TrEMBL record:
SUPFAM superfamilies, alphabetized: (Trans)glycosidases (SSF51445)
Classification via InterPro entries: GH
Source species: Streptomyces lomondensis
Protein name: Glycosyl hydrolase
Highest taxon in the source lineage: Bacteria
Length: 422
């Protein structure tokens, strides 16, 4: 590797302290999974949410199902919106703040399309003007219904919408228009202090020529969300479940996301990370959770960490990939698993100041194009160089090659040395 010295003698400008880190969980109802929305029971939800709050977590991310919310292009069911509002209220009663995802979309390997987008009614959900307008109206409706809730963190467009590109071909420019339209609609009724966000699975960061781009993730919406899963790029199997590559993956994803942002102070939210078996054996899950949270907490500008997920999928439900049955902090009977204890203890440690964020004055230069984005994913030359540097005890940031000669930008990020991959 080649090291370049930069901004000799310069220090990072004074800035406000990062707000208290947020720690939460993606809420998966224990009884019936997301099919629970067909016969929503606030008492069952309160039981689940009380368990989550007892771990010392401060928020949940929640999901309704798009076909139940909007069964017709021009009809949004008031009863379904009321259910969602009631869930936000129940979470508040349990002491939890809530991020609401709107267009579901995709959840745990299943896709949920309203019938007006399917078969001979097929509309491309990203490019058909009327389909996009309908989704925008759904986001407006949710914003109008939920904006007054004091425990609302904000609205997200949907869960990993880029999972839908296989059946809805789209270009990067069309993705940008889609995201801009829906984010504007989500923002329309929200107070200024609430978030409007979007999310994508790891193909946005690692997938060559994937239409959802790193730039879209890092520049649209109010925070950058990352979902650094250990099965992406076969990371855990490639390097081993106890490897540094696995235990620093969320940290790496946070630093990679910061490189693509135009605002050096833009926050990054590790919004999904978890310990899926067999990629992470159950015996290794507690240590994986501890390492993941501690390492991510060492990143400046981290908004927070939201674990996936709260409760295991009950094995009475069929046809899920095996890993989906084991991802919960609680099992399907509501019993806390060892990983829940580990996560709760580690969150308490971070809040007590035991794993503070530290400045990163050395950065590894990422030189790739949309067609070679995979170099930054597991198995890629850049990924492995960053992990090699991290193993020496360094705290490497990530800088795009296009910004490597921008002294003002480097100074704003506190970067004094650049390391180049041979």
């Amino acid at each position: 590797m080649v090291i370049d010295a930069f901004t000799q003698g310069k220090t990072r400008p004074e800035e406000d302290p990062i707000p208290t880190l947020r720690f939460g969980v993606n809420y998966t109802p224990r009884r019936g999974w997301f099919h629970a929305w067909h016969d929503f029971d606030p008492a069952h939800a309160r039981e689940d949410l009380d368990q989550i709050a007892a771990l010392g977590l401060d928020h949940v991310r929640v999901f309704h199902l798009w076909p139940l919310l909007q069964p017709n292009r021009t009809f949004i069911r008031p009863a379904a919106v009321d259910q969602l509002a009631r869930l936000v209220d129940v979470a508040g009663e349990a002491g939890l703040d809530v991020l609401v995802d709107g267009v579901q979309g995709h959840l745990s390997s299943f896709d949920f399309y309203p019938e007006w987008t399917r078969s001979w009614h097929h509309r491309n959900v990203f490019t058909d003007p009327e389909a996009v307008a309908a989704q925008a109206e759904l986001m407006r409706t949710l914003g109008r219904a939920l904006a007054g809730r004091p425990n609302l963190i904000g609205l997200q467009l949907g869960n990993e919408l880029n999972n839908l590109v296989e059946h809805n071909p789209v270009t990067p420019a069309e993705v940008d228009r889609y995201l801009d339209t829906l984010l504007a609609a989500a923002r329309e009724h929200l107070p200024p202090d609430r978030l409007a966000t979007h999310s994508a699975y790891d193909a946005a960061w690692y997938g060559d020529d994937h239409p959802f781009t790193p730039e879209a993730s890092a520049r649209k919406g109010d925070v950058t969300t990352v979902h650094p899963w250990v099965f992406s790029g076969d990371c855990a199997r490639r390097y081993g479940p106890r490897s540094p590559q696995v235990r620093h993956l969320a940290e790496y994803g946070t630093e990679l996301a910061k490189a693509y942002a135009e605002d050096p102070d833009r926050p990054v939210w590790v919004q999904e990370t978890g310990a899926p078996e067999p990629h992470i054996p159950a015996a290794d899950a507690p240590d994986f959770a501890r390492a993941t949270v501690r390492n991510a907490a060492g990143c400046e500008g981290l908004w927070g960490v939201t674990w996936w997920c709260s409760h295991d999928v009950d094995r009475s439900l069929a046809d899920y990939p095996e890993l989906e049955y084991t991802l919960g902090l609680f099992d399907s009977r509501g019993r806390a698993k060892p990983i829940a204890t580990a996560l709760a203890e580690t969150v308490a440690e971070v809040r007590a100041g035991h794993h503070p964020a530290r400045p990163r004055d050395t950065a590894l230069v990422l030189d790739c194009t949309p067609a070679t984005r995979s170099v930054s994913g597991p198995g890629g030359a850049y990924f492995e160089a960053w992990m090699e540097l991290r193993a020496t005890g360094a705290l490497p940031a990530v800088v795009l090659a296009a910004r490597a000669d921008d002294a003002a930008y480097l100074a704003a990020r506190g970067i004094k040395e650049l390391v180049r991959v041979p």
